Structure prediction request, 220 residues.
Amino acid sequence: MSRGIRVLLVDDHAVMRAGFRMILEAQDGIVVVGEAPDGAAAIEAAAALDPDVICMDVQMPVMDGIEATRRLVADRSIEAAVVIVTTFDRDDYLFQALEAGASGFLLKNAGPEELVTAVRVAAAGDALLAPEVTRRVIERFAVRPEVSTQGAVVAPVIDLTERETEVLRLVAQAMSNAEIARALYIGEATVKTHVSNVLQKLGARDRVAAVVYAHRGGYA
Prediction:
């Protein structure tokens, strides 16, 4: 039996944490296992509570969310995906978060359904960006063909199959694995395999880098 998606909420405002908890725990298959008021406490809580997803604020006392994300991603004993959820629509936060290894970037003015989607997408091992920031990521990295969103070289694609090309085009449209499966009339597990193959051939760490490549390479 699945244990559900375990979520850790990290924000220095208790009211914000309470609001996120209310939204998430109203969903089937999601449970909030803990809260933390700053990045340092988040690292301790993540080690103790084994969350699948950490919703992380940026501006916090003691340790900010970017540094906490960097340390969490570097810790091989912690497997949680980090989704940055911030009030501040700032490019420096966005790119620092991606470079630190965050699996998503969402603004606090997003609707409840977007928060739920971000948690589910991150738990599934995918990456998600708020629609309003996706274009900025593409514009920044598309003009630097040697650099991916994680600072690694993105290898030229020379052997994508026809199906992998279709999947890459749909990934570039910010579609989830479930949405791609419905669009192509194939199983979600098959989509996941195709996405993994595409990322490997791209030399990309995650879907964000794949989106950048797709737009740069004319797949989108």
Q: What stands out?
A: Strands lie at 5-10, 30-36, 53-56, 81-86, 104-107, 128-129. Residues 143-155 have pLDDT under 50 and may be disordered. The longest helix spans residues 188-202.
